[in-house]
Design a protein that fits this description.
The complex is a heterodimer. In chain A, about 50% of the residues lie in helices and about 5% in strands. Chain A is mainly α. Chain B is about 50% helix and about 0% strand. The radius of gyration of chain B is 20 Å and the shape is globular. Classes of the chains: A mainly alpha, B mainly alpha.
Chain lengths: ~200, ~100
């Protein structure tokens, strides 16, 4: 039986998608045919027992399936096959789950630190949850862009930046965030002479 | 865990059946169903016939959600973290 995964299990589901993404389970299963848990274990370099547990959880969200219950042969589903065919989606997942989620966990702490008992919102970009979720080596909060530019060692430094750019492309191409929908879905002409300001990063 | 063969219509029909089983039990026993009102009952009675229907209803609803979203939207929306994490006053404009 599936669980009520959009509600009570949401964080566990995100953690599992984060694992599928970082260890690239998507490429470990062929689009045509199936893979055994042992095959996937070899490709992801994770112990088979863990691979099995991660995938069993994923399957409750219709991410991967077994050909038959107990067959031990894993196949893609609609949502995971989509990632294989649209690999840039992995940058979207990585940005949200590796960069934004640790920050969102710090939101109450950030409000307590920078806003509690005050009348005004904090002005400084580093005084936000993101900064607390991504401290530098001296324990100082960083802004999103300071983090993206400086994280990583040696040649790898700043590797998050191109991935961030790719994530933005994914967001702008996503059909449900398509600017054309906004263009066609509202009577802009009815505003007459007007100035429209785009305040969204995605449109 | 094998690949589900459900469709929007097959799920819609299951959802109707599960929902009907719940409301029939409630009205036959003179009970109220949870609603959106703040002062209503918070849970369904702990009887197997009703709870089974309720859990199957949730399962069918979740499956239908996946079908309604399609393969492209599930991972995209499920992983989306609202930018509230960067919450602070936007910088003042130069103008």
């Amino acid at each position: 039986m599936n669980r009520d995964n959009n509600h009570s299990q949401n964080k566990h589901d995100s953690a599992v998608i984060n694992v599928l993404n970082q260890f690239d389970f998507f490429s470990a299963v062929p689009l045509e045919g199936s893979a055994s848990y042992a095959d996937i274990s070899r490709r992801t370099q994770l112990p088979e027992a863990i691979v099995r547990r991660i995938l069993r959880h994923a399957m409750t969200s219709k991410l991967f399936a077994e050909t038959e219950a107990g067959s031990d042969r894993v196949v893609h589903t609609a949502a995971t096959a989509y990632v294989v065919r649209n690999p840039t989606l992995r940058s979207w997942v990585a940005h949200n789950l590796e960069e934004m989620e640790p920050a969102s966990a710090k939101l109450p702490e950030a409000l307590r630190k920078f806003s509690f008992g005050k009348q005004e919102e904090p002005e400084e970009p580093e005084n936000a949850a993101f900064g607390l979720g991504h401290l530098d080596e001296h324990g100082k909060p960083r802004t999103l862009f300071e983090f993206l530019q400086n994280d990583g060692e040696g040649d790898n430094k700043g590797y998050r930046m191109p991935r961030f750019a790719e994530m933005m492309q994914v967001a702008s191409k996503a059909s449900h965030l398509n600017p054309e929908m906004v263009q066609r879905g509202f009577d802009w002409g009815g505003l007459g002479e007007a100035t429209v300001v785009d305040v969204s990063v995605f449109l | 865990m094998s690949q589900s063969q459900e469709t929007l219509d097959s799920l819609a029909s299951k959802i109707f059946d599960h929902s009907k089983a719940i409301t029939t039990y409630l009205s036959a026993n003179g009970l109220r169903a949870p609603s959106f009102e703040s002062n209503n009952v918070a849970e369904y009675p702990p009887v197997p016939e009703l709870q089974e229907a309720r859990l199957m209803l949730i399962e069918s609803l979740m499956d239908m959600l996946h079908l309604a979203m399609g393969g492209s939207e599930y991972i995209f929306t499920q992983t989306m973290v609202v930018r509230v994490a960067s919450l602070c006053k936007p910088p003042k404009s130069e103008s």
